[in-house]
Amino acid sequence: MTSLELHLRDGDAVVEAQRLEDVAAGVYPAFYRRCGSRLKVSTSVVALIRDAGDFIPDESFRPPDYLRGHFTEDWMYRVARKANRHFGWPALEPITPAWYASWNSIDVRVKKLRAFETVTPEESRAGFAPDFSIGDCESVVERSAAHIARFIEKTERAFPGYDHIVMTAGRDSQLVWLAPRVAPERWHVFSAEPNHPLVVEWLERNHIRAGRVFHHDNRNEETPEDFRAKVICGDLYSDPTHLRWMPAARRVAAEFGQRCIFWSGTMSNPAHFYAGQHRLDYAHDKAAFFRAHFERTASWQGNYHQVFRNFTGRPHLSPFHSPDIWNDLYSHIDPTRLPRDADLRVEVGELLAGRKVWWLPSNPGPTTYSYRAYVNLRKLYVRHIQEEVSHGRR
C-alpha cells in the first residue's frame, strides 16, 4: 500500500498491509504499527492506538505548545507581523513553530512514515536519491505541466461520477483550474475571504467554467466539539490555528454524498519548485532544499491533508504531489541551477491552458483562526486517547 492509496481509500480507519510506501514526499501522512508478520496502517495515530486496545505513552514526543505561543508572544512581534502583512514584506516565522517534524507519535509503537520511506514488518528503508540532472526552466515547465495534467486526469478516471472541489486562492491552486479536465462540470470552487472575490474575478476573466462556488467568510465557526475533533485528527503535528474551514468542508462533502475529492496547491513556500523568490533561502544548499520539503512541508502542509482526510472523511490531493511528478521531475532538479527570480508557475499555467492567462496582481491570503482562551492541546489529546482505550475495554 502507498501513502496516496491510503488517503484515497474508503472504509476502515485501520487497515492491514505487508508493505507501506510513501510516494509523495510525506504530504499524504501515513502511520503504522508493527504487529508480528503484518503492519496496521492508518491516517490517524489515535485510530491505531484504539485498535491496539491500550496506550503506551512516548514521553519524548513533545510538539510545541502551539496555543501558548499565540497568547504569550511579545507585543512588538505582533505589531511587526501585522506590518509585514500590510506592506507585503516577507513573513516572520512565528516564535512558536507552527509544525513538529517528528516520525514518532504520542504512543511508542506508532510511527509516522518518512518521506519516500518503505516499511515492512521486518525493516525500513529510504528511497529518495536525487541526481540533480535538471537545471533548466524549460524541462521543469514542460514536465510539470505534463504530470499535473496526467495526475488530474488519472484521478478523475479512477473515480468516475465523483465531484472535485478546489480550495482556491493563489497561483498554486489556480494551476489546477488551468489543467484539462475530463468532466469540467464536476469541478467546484471553495474560496475564503479575502481571496474569494479575487478568485471569482480570475475565473471570469480567464473564461474558466466552474460548477458550484462555495464561499467562506473565514470566521471561525468551530464548536468546542469541532475544535476537539480537529486537534485529534491532526495528532499534534501542526498548529490548529492554521487548520481552517473544517466544518464547512465537511458540509460540502455531505452535499455530494461523500463522493468527492478535495484539491489544493500544496507546496512549501520557502522551498518552492516554481516561485523563484522562494529558492533564495536554499540557493547553494541542495540538501536543505529537499529537507524543507520532507520536514516542513510534510509536517505542516501535510498535516493539513491529514486533518482534512480524517475530519471530512474525504481525500485532499495536491497536483504537485503525485508519484510520477516526484519520480520524473523533482528527484532530478538541481535548485542551485534554476534562476532565483523566475516564477515558473506562469509558464506552467499557460502551458496547461494552451493560451495566455491573466494573473491576479495579489494574493492576500486568509488570516489564521484565533481562540478566546488557551487550551493545553497535549492534555486534551491524551485525555481523549485514554477515554477511547477505556471505552474499548468495557
Description:
The protein has helices at residues 3-8, 45-52, 66-72, 75-87, 137-158, 171-178, 196-205, 224-234, 246-255, 286-299, 301-312, 323-328, 345-353, 377-393, and strands spanning 15-17, 20-21, 31-35, 38-42, 111-112, 117-119, 124-126, 163-167, 187-192, 213-216, 260-263, 316-317. α8 (224-234) crosses α11 (301-312). The strands form 3 sheets. The protein has a 5-stranded parallel beta sheet, with helices on both faces. A 4-stranded antiparallel beta sheet has the order 1-4-3-5. By secondary structure, it is α/β, with parallel strands linked by helices. The two termini are 33 Å apart.
Set out the fold topology:
Blueprint: H1 3-8, E1 15-17, E2 20-21, E3 31-35, E4 38-42, H2 45-52, H3 66-72, H4 75-87, E5 111-112, E6 117-119, E7 124-126, H5 137-158, E8 163-167, H6 171-178, E9 187-192, H7 196-205, E10 213-216, H8 224-234, H9 246-255, E11 260-263, H10 286-299, H11 301-312, E12 316-317, H12 323-328, H13 345-353, H14 377-393
Parallel strand pairs: 8-9, 8-11, 9-10, 11-12
Antiparallel strand pairs: 1-4, 2-6, 3-4, 3-5, 6-7
Helix pairs in contact: 5-13, 6-13, 8-11, 9-11
Mean pLDDT equals: 92
Strand fraction equals 5-15%
What gyration radius follows from the Cα positions, in whole Å? 21 Å
Helical residue percent?
25-40%
Spell out the helices and strands N to C: HEEEEHHHEEEHEHEHEHHEHHEHHH
Structural class: alpha/beta
**Cα end-to-end separation:** 33 Å
Quickly list its features.
single chain; 394 residues; alpha/beta; 5-stranded parallel β-sheet; 4-stranded antiparallel β-sheet; 14 helices; 12 strands; 11% strand; globular
